# Entry
Amino acid sequence: MAEPIFRRLALLGIGLIGSSVARIVRERGDIAAELVANARTQSTLDRVMQLGIADRVELDPARAVEGADCVMLCAPVGAYEALAAAIAPHLAPGAILTDVGSTKQSVIRDVGPLVPAGVHFVPAHPVAGTEYSGPDAGFTTLFQGRWCLLTPPAGTDETAVEKIAELWRRCGSMVEAMEPAHHDRVLAIVSHLPHLIAFTICGTADDLEGESRQQVLQFAASGFRDFTRIAASDPVMWRDVFLNNREALLEMLQRFMEDAQAMARAVRWGDATYIEDRILRGRVIRRSLIEMKQA
Ligand code: NAP
# Structure
C-alpha cells in the first residue's frame, strides 16, 4: 500500500460529500493516517462515531484543525467565511486548506484573504452528488469516474496542488485544473440552472389547485418524476450555491428564458421544424454524455 498523503485530515462538515471522503479514507488507508471530523451539531458527530467513519470528532472547528496537515471545508459555501475565520489562527504552518464547494469565485473571495501565510490554499470541487444529505448519505463510490475541478489561485505551491489532485485520484476522480470564473459559468449551466428549473417546476405543480394538483402527483410521468428527484436536494446547500454564483446563474437563466420563449413561439405558430430540431439537439447531447461515460 502507498504511503498516506497526509498525517491528519480534518473535515469541517461531514454530510454527503464529507462522509463519502471519510468512508474512502477509512477504506483505502493511503489518503490520511488519521481523520478528524467536525460538524455544526453534536448529533451529527454522534452519528459519525456510531458509523465509525472518523477517528475523532470535534464540535469546535478550531480544535478540529489543530495539528492537521490537510483541512477540507465540506460545509455549505455560505458557512465558509465564518469557518475560515474561526480556524485561521489554528492552522498548522505548511498545512493545506482545501474545500469541496460548488462555487469557486465566492470561495476564493471569502476564504482567500483569511488564509495565513505559510498555509497553502487549494480550492476544489468534486463534480459528483446525489439529492441526499447528512453523514448517512455518503458512499465510497460517489466520486468514481467523476471529475474533480481544482481552481488554485496563481502562484499556489505546486506540491500542495499535486497532493490534493492525488487525494481526488485516490477517491476515484479524474482531475482537471480550471480558472475559477470559467468553473462558475460551466457549473451554472450544467448544474445550478437545472436545479433552479427543477425547484421552480415543482413549485409550479404544487401551486395547482385541488384535483389537478392531486393528479399531478398520482400520474407523475417520468419527466416530472426526474425533476422531483433533483428538487429533493438540500435547501441550505442550494440556497448558498444560488447566492454565491449569482452573476453566472442569472446570465444562464436569461439565455434559457430567451430560448424557452423561442420554443413557445414555435409551439404557438406550429413551427414543427424548429420544435423537432430542438428536441434532436437534446438527443445528441444525451448520446455524447453516454459516450463520455458521464450519463
Ligand atoms: P450536507 O450533506 O448537507 O452536509 C453539510 C455538512 O456541513 C453537515 O455536516 C453540517 O453539519 C455542516 N454544516 C452545515 N452548516 C454549517 C455551518 N454553518 N457551519 C459549520 N458546519 C456546517 O452537504 P453536502 O451535500 O455534503 O455539501 C457540502 C459541500 O459540498 C457544499 O459546499 C456543496 O456546495 C458541496 N457539494 C455538494 C454536492 C452535492 O451534490 N450535494 C456536490 C458537490 C459539492 P450538521 O449536520 O451538524 O448540520
